[in-house]
Amino acid sequence: MEIRSVTFFVDPSRPLEALALAARDARSAFAEIGHAPQTVRLATTPFPDWLKTPGQLIELVTWCQDSGIDYLALGPVRLDDDGAHLNQLVTILATHEMVFASAEVADTDSRIDTGRAAQIAALIRELAVLRPDGFANLFFAATANCPPGSPFFPVAYCGKASGPVCFSIATEAADLAVEAIRPARDLPEAQARLVSAIEREAATLVMVASELASRHGFDFGGIDFSLAPFPEEARSVGAALEAMGITAVGGHGTLFAAALIAECIDRSRFPSCGFSGLMLPVLEDMTLARRAAEGILTIGDLLLYSAVCGTGLDVVPLPGDVAQEELTGILLDVAALAVRLDKPLTARLMPLPGLAAGDPVAFDFSYFAGSGVMETKRVGAAGLLSGRDRIVLSPR
Hints:
This protein is α/β, with parallel strands linked by helices. 38% of the residues lie in helices and 19% in strands. It contains eleven helices and 13 strands. The chain has helices at residues 17-32, 54-66, 84-95, 114-128, 174-181, 187-216, 237-243, 254-267, 286-294, 299-306, 324-340, and strands at residues 2-10, 39-44, 71-77, 99-106, 111-113, 140-144, 166-172, 219-224, 312-319, 345-352, 360-361, 371-372, 390-392. The chain has a nine-stranded mixed sheet. A two-stranded antiparallel sheet has the order 5-13. The model has no long low-confidence stretch (mean pLDDT 96).
């Protein structure tokens, strides 16, 4: 297991000197227990509240770079924010390589906005062509029913402008599932082994985090133990699912296996935050990437699995010519699942310029595995779904 990120949440209008000291302390404190954070990150309150000029962002990015902050999340464009803020994101993400952002298609009050879904779909298509390889969409996600405090990017944002600085931890822990499941003699033993591993690792992280919080006068927000993968067989969520007996992820039985692993996270005792569910990012997981390239794992499958676990649709490689209407429909599907099931979900969709369904995908990026462009249905949201309506779906 590794720490993917220690994420600090702050209103950027506040003095940040103490945060820089805490960030350095966090790196060394977790390194002493053998879990040096891969990244230390900063997530702000939603940028429409405070970002008035490009100079403010340049100043904040420079401060982050000088203070050892690896990545910066600007928070979401919320449903009640002017849609013009979405246009700002094209310039922001084209200019600053360390910056992430998001936009709500559904909020935590069960509201879904069909017009905003269409605007976000248009933004995804615009971001896709900022770079020849379509990589810019890595830094943006549509969100549905996502509260503040999640340490994973791009969804991370700060929900309070006052009070102590808060920080939380995002783990990269798919290897715990692989190690727990492969030697197990039956499903109960596999679950028990995984719960024990999660609780053991979490206890160590909480001990260090609590000491950091006390030392700096910060709040510790918890751990998002979503079993994030790395593109190696030993650190693959897909490999853990297949170790349960699934011939190939995407085949029948995968939903059941995913639910079993997700329940292990729910059953484990630790201070949780964010998704704390099974994370299925296609391009970040060697097995998922392979099954997507083979056509066994589909977008519909990923949506189905999100109903019992998961974070939604994450780093999904799509045809470069995917229509705005189809992206809108996908976003509305994610929003409906999130609101009706009352769970946070996101969509980080990556149309790849010049590529069609089935074409090979390869990025020069250590966190991505080789894969193939996933097929879409080539139909999308039209008629009443293409309007500019804001509706409320009640959770079941």
